[in-house]
Specification:
5-stranded mixed β-sheet, globular, alpha+beta, 32% strand
């Protein structure tokens, strides 16, 4: 299975998303990010076109705005019906991030809804309540499989 990379090494050619950035991938790509502690990971999959987008969002509001702007541009460039998108959000393990999670989820829902996405039907949220635990996340752009791991990739 392609998603074993979350608990093993990442194959060459997969796309790592550094903190504070958004990357998009096609059906041959696996998007992944590591070190999700206080940060938030947001992954979006377009099943029709087999395209994925992943953002590693710092908990600061200025970083969130920059990332949401990049993410909106990436989603608009897809040119497909947003009702067919699926999304996942995870992370937020520090005390400060835990207090910000509801605000961030609301902001994400508003941004996605503005693009025609239906977050209530298609957004899965899994918060990390273990302060100090870092996570890794991966999205297989071909299948739309999203996995998280409670430890960072080596």
């Amino acid at each position: 299975m392609r998603m074993s990379l979350v608990t093993a090494e990442c194959p060459a050619g997969d796309l790592w998303i550094p903190p504070g950035k958004v990357l998009s991938g096609s059906e041959r790509d696996i998007l992944f990010t590591t070190g999700i502690g206080a940060c938030i990971e947001l992954a979006i999959h377009n099943g029709e076109r087999r395209i994925g987008h992943m953002a590693h969002i710092f908990s600061t509001r200025s970083s969130q705005q920059e990332v949401f702007t990049e993410l909106e541009a990436a989603l608009e460039s897809d040119g497909t019906d947003p009702s067919g998108l699926s999304a996942w959000m995870t992370g937020g393990s520090s005390e400060a991030a835990m207090a910000e999670r509801a605000v961030l989820r609301t902001r994400a829902v508003e941004k996605l809804a503005g693009l025609g996405f239906s977050p209530d039907a298609n957004l899965s949220v899994e918060w990390n309540d273990d302060e100090g635990v870092v996570m890794a996340a991966a999205l297989d752009c071909a299948s739309g499989t999203h996995v998280i791991s409670p430890r960072a990739l080596a």
